[in-house]
Amino acid sequence: MSFNKDIPYDTLPDLPPKANLETADIFKLTIQANKLLAELKGYCQTLPNPNLLLNTIILQESKESSAIENIVTTQDELYKASLNVTDRIKNPAAKEVIQYREAMYWGLEQIKKTELITTNLLVGIMQKLRDTDDNIRKNPGTKLANPSTQAVVYTPPEGDTIIRQKLAELEKFINDDTYSDLDPLIKMALIHYQFEAIHPFSDGNGRTGRILNVLYLINKNLLSLPVLYLSRYIIQNKPDYYKLLREVTEQNNWDAWVKFVLQGVGETAAMTLSKINAILNLKNESIPLIKDALKASYSKELVDLLYSYPYIKTAILEANNIAKRQTAADYLKKIEKTGLLHSVKLGKEVYYINHNLMKVLSE
Ligand SMILES: Nc1ncnc2c1ncn2[C@@H]1O[C@H](COP(=O)(O)OP(=O)(O)OP(=O)(O)O)[C@@H](O)[C@H]1O
Ligand SMILES: [Mg+2]
User: Fold this and answer.
1) Is the CB of 134 within 6 Å of ligand 1?
2) Residue 31: its pLDDT value, please?
3) Is 33 within 8 Å of 180 (Cβ atoms)?
4) How far is the CA of 52 from the centre of ligand 2 (A)?
5) Ligand sitting nearest the alpha carbon of 210
6) Which residue lies with its CA nearest to atom 20 of ligand 1?
7) What is the pLDDT of residue 65?
8) Nearest-CA neighbor of 261 among 244, 239, 285?
């Protein structure tokens, strides 16, 4: 049975696809993407404190990914919200971003334990990022429409049984490498399409699929930290992204899809590398200034914190055992005098903004 955009695509074929993916062009792109990704991975492993990057990079990735849904939030609101470890976050847009980050961290913890990517894991990620106990779609009627014209372009498989069956097949393809000896990066491209085409949830499929990409790379040991900013590439190339997904379904055009993803991995790895470099440079340049301002109270841990949060406040220093409240406040005031931080008072809280870090992140 062939594809009809208005009828649930219950005959969606399982992976691997019937297509020649061993062409010279794909081979070239695969090598290039792997090379850049390996460089990124290696670079992260040489860092004295890789956790330094996690907060900033994942926060940014979360923001990019959530923006696909047009949950636009300002950097200011976002960074403020990200500091509120205990308070309830009121701004709904910032809340979505923070939830995305939580879902990513949760997924990471799970795969560290099990080394498997399962249907349950994907359901858990979707539940965390949407803050819901919704599960796999049970009701008919989900259709994907062109965002500008609202015309239906795709109707995913329908019914919990079929969806679970397709996910079970996908799960095997993800975890059992005897299914195909294609390069893991090519597999990631196939998996991303397949997951989106199954479209198992009533919402959050795009975001779950993007988290899945990163978790897959970590599971295959191509990355050790979730520092690849792939969502930015996807959002910047959204019309192509949507068009190429459709072309796989309608024309079995896997070739263009796989190339698009490989290109994205390479570009993104290169971009992430330069961003990490820029953050480390900023940090290193700031060290003499901070030493001078804090004298004997200077600590490496404090500098690491300053470059983990574009916004910082005394409570974060306290929570990280740098100093008690009064002393922490004093440190931040002294650092502000060097020009590295700028304070703003919002309600009862004083936030210190690291403008240089903000700039690198949003570039
Ligand atoms: N023609 C298509 N075939 C398969 N999947 C598609 C198609 N068009 C879009 N998609 C996928 O559907 C996702 C949107 O689904 P959904 O709204 O459930 O996810 P989301 O996470 O809420 O949204 P978003 O991805 O926009 O942030 C897109 O990100 C894309 O991955
Ligand atoms: Mg949605």
Assistant:
1) no
2) 98
3) no
4) 31
5) 1
6) 204
7) 79
8) 244
